[in-house]
Write a structure and sequence with these properties.
By secondary structure, this protein is an alpha/beta fold. It is built from eight helices and ten strands. Strands 6-7-8-3-9-10 form a six-stranded mixed sheet, sandwiched between helices. It has a four-stranded antiparallel sheet with strand order 2-1-4-5, covered by helices on one side. The longest helix has 16 residues, at about 175-190.
C-alpha cells in the first residue's frame, strides 16, 4: 500500500482570464520508506505539490491520501492533527524560535500535542543525538551554524515519529558541505529510520541521494527516474534532464 496517493491533483489560483494553473491533474504515489526528489524549473509547481501533499493547502480538484486518510475530506481540526502526527516538515528557512534552545525547538510538535514537557524534551534530545547534535542540546539557534540549525529542524520534523517527511529546498540556505550533510541525513531518515521523504530541490547533486526523481514542468509530471546509487554519474544525467525541460 502506498503511503502517499495523489489522484488528479490540480491547483488553480484566481478565476477567469487571470486564472493560473499551478498543478495540472498530477498522479503520484510514494511507498513507505521511499525517498523521492521533485525537480523542475522555477514556477513549475514543485512547492505547490508539496503543500497539497502536506495538507498546507487544499486542491482545486483531485484528492490526496496519506496513510489511507483522505486529506480533502478532513475538517481543519482533523487536518491539523494529521499534519502534527503523521507529517514532519523541513523548510529552506529553519523556522526555529530564537529564544528556545535546540531541545525546546525540537520538542515543539510534542509540546503542542499535549505531551508532558519532560517527556517531550527527552524525546527531542534523543532525536537531536541521532542527527549528530548530542553536544548542542542547550544551544540557541544563534549559537548554531546553518547546517546545525537545519539538523534541529530535521529532529523537530521527526520527534513525533511521523510516517512522512516533506522537505522544501532544505539546503537552499546552506553551503556545499552542509548541503551534502543534510541530504545524507534525509537519506538516513529514509533508509535507516523508515520514513518516506519527499524533497523539492533545484540541485541535481542533492537529488541524486533519492531513490526516485519526479520531474515537473508547467504543473505536470513529465518524466521520472529511478536511481541506482551511482551519485556523480547520476547527478550529471539529472542535470541534463533538468536543463532540457
Amino acid at each position: 500500500m502506498s503511503l502517499i496517493q495523489a489522484e488528479q491533483l490540480t491547483k488553480i489560483y484566481g478565476q477567469g482570464e487571470t486564472a493560473v494553473t499551478a498543478l495540472d491533474h498530477v498522479n503520484l504515489s510514494v511507498a513507505p520508506g521511499e525517498f523521492v526528489a521533485v525537480m523542475g524549473p522555477s514556477g513549475c509547481g514543485k512547492s505547490t505539490l508539496l503543500h497539497l501533499v502536506g495538507g498546507l493547502d487544499r486542491p482545486t480538484e483531485g484528492r490526496v491520501r496519506i496513510d489511507g486518510a483522505d486529506l480533502t475530506t478532513l475538517d481543519d481540526a482533523r487536518l491539523t492533527e494529521l499534519r502534527r502526527r503523521k507529517i514532519g516538515f523541513v523548510f529552506q528557512f529553519f523556522n526555529l524560535i530564537p529564544v528556545l534552545d535546540a531541545t525546546e525547538n525540537a520538542a515543539l510538535p510534542l509540546t503542542l500535542d499535549g505531551v508532558k514537557p519532560a517527556e517531550a524534551r527527552a524525546k527531542a534530545s534523543e532525536w537531536l543525538t541521532k542527527v549528530g547534535l548530542g553536544n548542542r542540546l542547550r544551544n540557541r539557534p544563534d549559537q548554531l551554524s546553518g547546517g546545525q540549525q537545519q539538523r534541529v529542524a530535521i529532529a523537530r520534523a521527526l520527534v513525533a515519529d511521523p510516517a512522512l517527511v516533506l522537505a522544501d529546498e532544505p539546503t537552499g540556505n546552506l553551503d556545499t558541505r552542509a548541503s551534502d550533510e543534510v541530504a545524507g541525513l534525509l537519506k538516513q531518515v529514509s533508509d535507516a529510520w523508515g520514513r518516506a521523504v519527499v524533497m523539492v530541490t533545484h540541485d541535481p547533486r542533492l537529488a541524486a541521494y533519492a531513490d526516485r526523481i519526479i520531474f515537473l514542468k508547467d504543473g505536470a509530471i513529465v518524466d521520472e527516474t529511478r536511481l541506482s546509487g551511482n551519485g556523480a554519474e547520476e547527478a550529471r544525467a539529472v542535470k541534463e534532464k533538468v536543463e532540457a525541460l
